Amino acid sequence: MRNREALRHDWTKEELLAIYNKPILELVYEAASVHRIWHKADEIQLSTLLSVKTGGCPEDCSYCGQAARYHTDINVQALLPTETVLAHAKKAKENGSSRFCMAAAWREVRDNRDFDRIIDMVKGVNELGLEVCCTLGMLTAHQAKRLQEAGLYAYNHNMDTSAEYYEKIISTRQFDNRLNTIQNVRKAGITVCSGGIIGLGESTTDRISMLLTLANMDIHPESVPINALARVKGTPLENNPKVGIWEMVRMIATTRIAMPGSMVRLSAGRLEMTETEQAWCFLAGANSIFTSDRETLLVTPNPSITKDIQMLQNLGLKPMKK
Ligand code: SAM
Ligand code: DTB
Ligand code: SF4
Questions:
Q1: What is the bridge-based pairing of β-strands 196-198 and 223-228?
Q2: Contact 291, 271 (CB under 8 A)
Q3: Whole-model pTM?
Q4: Closest listed residue to residue 144, CA positions, set 197, 173, 186, 113
Q5: How confident is the model at residue 1, as a pLDDT?
Q6: How does the average pLDDT of the chain come out, rounded?
Q7: Contact between 51 and 77 (Cβ < 8 Å)
Q8: Active-site residue flag, 134
Q9: Residue 147 and residue 127: Cα distance in Å, rounded?
Q10: N or C end of the chain: smaller count of CB under 10 Å?
Q11: Is 265 labeled as ligand-binding?
Q12: Three-state SS at 133
């Protein structure tokens, strides 16, 4: 059954934990079966990510290389000119992307000239025939409406981790602020992209608790990015252990089973994975990746688009059309 009534919004912690902890082959088999009911399993959505404003962020997210308070090696970059952004978007389309995501290292959107410029970028990318996505920090209902009117298709705003673990990772805002922005996005008629990060030092229960927040929303986020912590030198989490492949596979499979109709995005962490490991993630239900012509996500390295296209060919997968 591929209708919205078949989606559940009443998952319990125990149920999701039991799924997450299943023997790995059984878990992947179940997730792959669900994936095949809801999606074309040979298609992967390519979403090109571009940092349109980099670094100098006032927030203290302890994983992030763009927080001004940590001494990282990144180059701060003011908001890019609209023409530069549109040139990247055009190239992204030529390279097979169906979605283009613009990210800004802001705590929140302010009603100023920079926001007017973002609105122009959204219009321009939309006119190229790409799904336009933005991730700009917190939004008011009015700002969300302006973005929707400009043609914004999706807004990325991650829960990042569980409500319980949140204050260990970020002190400059609260879990509820995130939920509030997601609500504003939803009400404005923009699709929601929201997921999180593993490898922050959280427990399995925290991972499940975060998934529960997403899976029990009235409407599931249309896309759910699962990031493995990209360890950035100079941030408080720089020495965290690398996320193991089976943890990533378990997280993706559980996300796929809990939110079968959503796109599940294998996000940060791909550079540290082999092709075989990424294939496990696709089998477990991931059907989207971030690509970039600059071989970076925002500030950390990502595989090149050439390498990604080669990987899809090797695996017999094809880029999803809009
Ligand atoms: N500043 C905005 C915000 O925080 O919502 C938008 C950009 S922010 C970089 C988008 C998301 O990227 C974060 O919420 C987090 O989930 C993810 N992210 C940031 N740094 C990361 C890292 N080092 N490893 C994995 N994911 C990361
Ligand atoms: C998401 O969930 N992952 C992307 C995107 N949303 C904006 C960002 C990942 C950032 C990885 C670390 C970096 O390059 O800063
Ligand atoms: Fe700023 Fe976003 Fe990085 Fe947090 S994740 S420090 S809000 S850019």
A1: parallel
A2: no
A3: 0.97
A4: 186
A5: 52
A6: 96
A7: yes
A8: no
A9: 14
A10: N
A11: yes
A12: strand
The amino acid present at 197, given as its one-letter code, is: I
What residue ranges of the chain have pLDDT lower than 50?
A: none
Residue 101 assigned ligand-binding role:
yes
Q: Is 101 considered catalytic here?
A: yes
Residues 181-232: tens digit of each pLDDT: 999 999 999 999 999 999 999 999 999 999 999 999 999 999 999 999 999 9
Q: Which residues contact 201 (CB under 8 A, 6 or more apart)?
A: 168, 237, 240
State how far the Cα of 21 lies from the Cα of 32, in Å rounded to an integer: 16
Cβ pair 131, 76 in contact under 8 A: no
Amino acid symbol at 240:
N
DSSP conformation class of 4:
G
Name beta bridge partners: 290.
47
Ligand 2 lined by 230 (C-beta under 6 Å) = yes
Q: Do 243 and 201 touch, CB atoms closer than 8 A? A: no
Phi first, then psi, for residue 45 (nearest 5°) are -80, 130
Q: Kindly tell me the number of DSSP H helices and DSSP E strands found in the chain.
A: 11, 10
- Measured distance CA(128)–CA(280) in Å, rounded: 33
Backbone φ, ψ for residue 48 (5° rounding): -85, 130
Pair 223, 16: CB distance under 8 Å: no
Domain locations along the chain: 14-270+282-316
The amino acid occupying position 130 is L
| CATH architecture of the domain with range 14-270+282-316 | Alpha-Beta Barrel (3.20)
Q: Which of 193, 250, 256, 270 is catalytic?
A: 193
- C-alpha torsion sign, points 228, 231, 235, 240: positive
Identify whether 61 is a catalytic site residue: yes
Span 279-314, pLDDT tens digits: 999 999 999 999 988 889 999 999 999 999 999 999
DSSP bridge partners of 160: 196
Q: Hey, how many other C-beta atoms are within 10 angstroms of the C-beta on 40?
A: 11
